Each structure stands twice: as C-alpha cells, then as structure tokens.
Records
---
Amino acid sequence: MPIATINPATGETVKTFAPATSGEIDSAIAHAYQRFADYRRTSFAQRAQWAHATAALLEAEAEQTAAMITLEMGKTLTSAKAEVLKCAKGFRYYADHAEALLADEPADAAAVGAAKAYARYQPLGVVLAVMPWNFPLWQAVRFAAPALMAGNVGLLKHASNVPQCALYLADVITRGGFPPDCFTALLVPSTAVEDILRDRRVAAATLTGSEPAGRSVAAIAGDEVKPTVLELGGSDPFIVMPSADLEAAVNTAVTARVQNNGQSCIAAKRFIAHRDIYDEFVDKFVEKMAALRVGDPTDPDTDVGPLATEQGRAEVEHLVDQAAAAGAVIRCGGKRLDRPGWFYPPTVITDISPDMPIFCEEVFGPVAAVYRASDIDEAIEIANATSFGLGSNAWTTDTAEQQRFIDEIEAGQVFINGMTVSYPELPFGGVKRSGYGRELSAHGIRAFCNVKTVWMGRD
C-alpha cells in the first residue's frame, strides 16, 4: 500500500509521501536513543507541563484536525472532533496522575530482612508503536501519553493511509514542549518494521491492528526478547436478556455497531438476543439500522460515512455475500452503494450457522450478525464461540445474570447495560487472539517500565 492520503468518500488520491530511507530511519532511531538518555531524567512536573500544553493545542486545533482525520479515513466530522478531544483528555489524565501511578511501592521490609524495601518503576527506553488507521490519533495517543509521562520516548510507524495524522501527532507533541526526538513519526511501509524492532536501540514495541500483524511483531520481539503489548481484533458480543430495557438496548446496539462507520475493534459485532425478546429486538434493530443516513462524512446530517479503504469494503462485502449464499438472511443492507467512494450500508444478518466464515471472523464494517439464544447458558456459549476476546456487552437487570456474564464471558472487558468504550481511567486490552497486555490506567503506563526491586540493608 502506498503511503498516501486517499479520500475514502471519493477514492481520490489527495497527496502521496515518499517512504523514509534506511539512512533516515537509522538517524531517527539514533536521535531517539540519544534523547532518552537525558529525557528520562526530566521531572514528572516538567513532563506534565508539556502534556497539558499538548492537550491545549489539541483542543484549540480540534476543528481543522478533525477535518484532516475525516479526509484520510472517512469518519464523520462529529466523531473525528470527539476523537481529538479524547486525545486531549488522555494527555491531561496522565499529566495529572503519572507521578502517583508510578510512585515507589513499599514492601514488607521486615519480612525480607531489610531496613527498607520497595519496587520502583523506571522507563525502558525507545518504544516502537505500530498503529492502525481507524482511530488515527486516539490509538496512538493512548500509547504516547503514558509512555512519555513515564519517561520513555516513542517511534510511531502509523498506517500508510493516515500519514498526515501521523505527522501531525509528532508535530503537536513537539509544539507542546516535549524535546525534539521524544516522539517521531516514521513514514515507512510494514516491511520496515522488522529491522526497526530488531535494532538494539529499540527496547520494546506496542501494536494495535490485525491478528496477522500482531503475530509477526510478537514473533520478532520474542526472538529479540523484547516486551510487547498487542491489541488485536475483536468480535464482541452484545447480549440482550428479557429483563433489559429493550428500547435502550436497541438504541445502544445501533451506536455500538456503526460507531466509526463500523470500523472499531471494540464495536459490538455479534448480537445475541434471548428467544423471549428475539423477534422484537430484531424488528426494532433492523428498523433503526435501515433508517441511518449514509453519505458525505463532512455533512453534519450523515450517520455513517465510507469505509476507510477499498480493500476493507471488499472484505466486508465478501463475508456478507458468502453468508447470504449459504442461507443467511439479509434483513437490511447487504449491497454496496452505487456511488463514488467506499460506502457500505448498515446491514443486519440473521440465521447464521457455525459453518459460515462470518460466524467466527471479525467483520470490520457496519454489519451486525444477530443470534437467538434459548437461555443464559446458550447466550454465554455463543458469546465465547470465537477466537477473540476483546470487549463485550450484556443487557440485563437481573443481578444473578449480571454476575454470570461478568464471571463467564471470555473478554478483557465486560460492560453491563452500556456500550464498550475506552477510558484513560480503565485498563484496555483483550484475551485469546485479541492480544495481551493492557493500555490505559495504571496498567498502561507501567507496561513499558522496568519494575525494579530495591532492597536496602541496615547501616
């Protein structure tokens, strides 16, 4: 894939970028490595000042930055602006809490025969971040903000279709006051990742993206014995039980499926309704999905914009067509729109069987698969019948059912009577083939720290 801005609403190539040369890559790594030597010694107060200044710039530039995001990957202007403001919130959260989150942790000194014993968190060094296009600022910021506040420095290898977002993030961090080379955007193809990760000056890596990309980075890092955090795909269940507020569940289900034009790892993708309310849920859900307005993402009245890439639309189309040919029922949507750009309509599919690829594969677009469950046991069984385990949603007012969902759904996150959302205050990540490690909260800032044991004897 060329490194280029291609407008998903029209298919027009707006701007292309030359990939960095091997010499430019080596220079960027060298400068980052040298910068870490002094940056790690800056105080939390100084880093917090820079992080707050970066947040202020993001807020002041939210309108034009949102327009850039929409141009590059097609999300609506409303959601793009919300993403920019969320990035500002992320920087502010870690500016205000990093010092406390990384404070020395006292241990029982007497139990280990010491005068004093504790654990200290210290930065690892240069961290490579391999990031996707669907939340081109937020997914990079949820690494950058904690990593910088911990004293690490970052190299960003962003997706090839959002180069302007990559360059903007590195620029706004520098304009916020962080020293040059603390956070560098490298415009390189995916083929360059291995050499960068194997470089002795790079200490660790984080990746948000596809399962194949995660496997590749994990294998390289494992061979080099370097720590990684992986946030990969998701096929999140959205369970609705008879006691749920059905109207609220349906409204949230629509938002959960079409957020970011359906291109979110934590978007609900598999909707599991109890048999007692299945028909009513499907009728209401289909009605609301079919009523969504698909169109120009810069139009404030648009609900769903284009998919980000032509290949992405082709993959969604293939899974839906396969299911329909095998006997699944298309309740609404199901056919690409006859217009320029990479649009695909909100789609609802029922009568899916386990032998259909759509049963187990992640559909990265506004396509909802609906399943009928006879009881809570079957609902949990369907929810867990996937190799992924990122987020999950369950709607019920029955406290016993709530506890079963919390205990038995195989996922990194369970949201009861709500929609899965990432917050700086909560850990974010998955299990099974959705990856390992955690971003955000205390877990995220400690992910790329050396937890150093300190034992001090008596004088």
Note: The longest helix spans residues 77-101.
---
Amino acid sequence: MSFTAAIIGRPNVGKSTLFNRLVGQRLALVDDLPGVTRDRREGKARLGDIEFRVIDTAGLEDVTDQSLAGRMREQTERAIDDADVVLMVIDARAGVTPMDRHFADLLRRRSVPVLLVANKSEGKGGIAGAYESFELGLGDPIAISAEHGEGLSDLFDALVPYAGEPVDAAEGALADAPSAADGEAVEDDPAKPIQLAIVGRPNVGKSTLINRLLGEDRLLTGPEAGITRDSIAIEWAWRGRPIKLIDTAGLRRKSVIEHKLEKLSVADTLRAIRFAELVVLVVDATQMLEKQDLTIARMIEDEGRSIVLAVNKWDLIENKPAALEKLRDRLQISLPQLQGLTCIPVSGATGAGLDKLMKAGLDAHAVWNRRIPTPKLNRWLAEVQERHPPPLVDGRRLRLRYMTQANTRPPTFALFSSKPGELPDSYRRYLVNLMRETFDMPGTPIRVMLRKGANPYADKD
C-alpha cells in the first residue's frame, strides 16, 4: 500500500458508502440509520492507477467518556493516528453543522493532512452545502456522490500527491482475487492468508478473543450485547503463517430478529462463513452449548468449512473436568456429523488456551485440505465391505465398486455403486465415520457423492 487514508465524519454522512466505492465491494454495512459503523474497518482501495489502504470509521460523537459512543470515538482517533491523510466527509445536502465545525477544529490542531469531501453533492441540492463548507478552513471541498460514483476523478487528483508508484492493473486484480469457492480444486498455499472467521452468539466474547490474539484493543468490546454489527477483517500472522481474522456479528435465532440492520448483520456473518476456510465457533462456557450454538455449528458444516470449537470464559468454570465431559457428551449426541470436533477451552480475558486454539485451527485446516490416494481408498473400501457388507436390495447384495477423492476443501469423495439410489443413509454415515477414524480426519465435513456406471478413473491411477 502506498499510503493510508482514514474516512471520518459525523454519523450518516456516507462514510461507509464511500469506503465501499473505493474498495469496489460492498464490505461495509450501509443503512439510513445513523451510527451503523462501530468498529474501524480496513480495505484495499483503488482509484484510477493508485492503490492505498483505506479505513472506515464510526461517526464522530462529541463524547470522551467510557460509554459505547466514547469507545467508538477512541477507535476513530486511533485510525486518524494511523493515517497519512484524512478524508473528512460532510453531507452537502444537510450543509455544515455545528458538529462538523467542532471536528474540523480538532483536525486543524493535528499534524495529519486533511481533505474535505462534500458527499451527496449530486444535483442542485448539494451545491449550497458544498460552497458552505469553505468556512471549515480545511481547503477546497471535493464535491462527490459516493452512491452514484460522481466526482471521484477530483478525489483522485487530490490523493495523487500521497501516492507512490502506480499499481499495475493486472497485478492488482490478481492480489484482490477472492478465495476459491466450495467445489473448486485449490491447493493450500502457505504464503496465502487463511480466511479465519470467528462466529457465535452475541456476547460470547468473539471481539475480546480477537483483541487478545492481536495483543491490542483493535476491536470495540464491552458488556453490551451486539456491539459488533458487520464483519471486520484484520491481517495478522501466527508463527509465520498469514491469517486474515474476521470478526462477525453475533447470530441470534431468526424468530427474535426484527430490525433490518440486524438482518443485514446476519447476512454479513453468513457471507463471512461462506467464504472462510476455517471457522472458530465461540461458545460461552457458562451457558454450555445452547440450541443456537448447535444451529450455527450445523450451518458451518452445511457450508463445508473446517471448524474448531472455542469454549470461552473458561476461567469462570469451577469444576472444569466435569464441564468438559458434559460438553463432549453433548457434542456426540447433537453433532454426530462433526464427530471428533476439537474443543479448546480458552479465556479471552486472560489469554489462556489461545496458542492451543490456533494450533488446533491450523490442524483442522490441514485436514480440510487433505487428499487421500485412490489406491489407498479402494483397499480400505474392500476391507470395509468384507467386514461389514452393504445391505441386501431385492435379495441381491449392493456392490460398492470404486471410490476416489474428487475434491478437497472439504474432502469430497465419489463412490461408484451398482445401485447408488438404494444405499441407505445409515450405511453412508457408517462409511464417513469409519473414514474419519481410519484416515485421521476428525471434526471436518466430509462429502460422499454416490455415482453409478463404469469407473471413469480406471486408467488414471
């Protein structure tokens, strides 16, 4: 990145809309309700032939105490400290407000350069507000419409002095390419960051856990439930392995979700799960494995992501061996499709267990990428049928002819049978569970696709 730009301003002036426009994706939640953004979000922005890091921030409030608004302001001030240039956004249609004047005064006292951006300037309604913003003393306003993409060439001209060498378009496109979707054959690249999503119910300590991993108060935390509203991605590394940590909003039951903003937050979390490679499901040790925890776990399994269970707030449990035994029993009964799921007791407050959690996560990710040789699979299949043959159908024994691994991420196998439609689900589950045990694949989703016909792989192995 050639430089860092922080987008600041009072609530509801279009900061997140501008952020989305600059990064070229709808990463930040946008709504008419003021104060949607709470944590600072970073992204790779591109404007013309310059590439830079951009930080979206919460709306500036004139609060300095330790309330939620005060803690949000602290996060914004840290973003200003990290920035090479600040984009102060005002609402041109609303004109200059007393709060705009207040924060313009604060910015003038800082050494960081400031560009004044008059958003919502499309049409005649924003002209008066754009001219009025000259009184803020931050230089000539840059009139734009983040929603419609107007005025970005003027913003580009203002940012050019802060940029280094221009970025090659093809190189930038390759760097921003998304990770492969489920079903594509992709090998694990140790140099590429692992997409690690932290998910769970509200107030189980997801953001606190990430702050402890990072060693800084990067994310907004507090006793209030539901502080995190949108998924925040943070570049990190653990023992030399690049990790992209993704903090997500808490998932509640559908029946209790009423507001549009929470629906948007849930959709953002589900998207994070869908594109993650590894998911850490955080549960509250004092409210062990509630129904919603199991629902989220099944959702992760349905998406085919590698998964580890983090039992947070373990420092509050008195009888730890009994609690762990109870947890394992519950998992065996309620999540048989994730047999052998790794459970790591942790404490976001003290940092206990976090190294074990990350090691278990990377081990689960390695299993998720594992490929089993076809000859080894078929020797195993022959032994299984000798020991426990498939059931009879119309008086004839089903034949399992051949098996091969069609894909990884998650491990996916093609099983060729004489009558695939007649094979009972119970026998398929038996094969999957035995495969986990034989090939050491605990807790990862495994897909077995039944096929009929000649063996198309006969000449390939």
Note: Residues 5 and 54 are 5 Å apart (CA to CA).
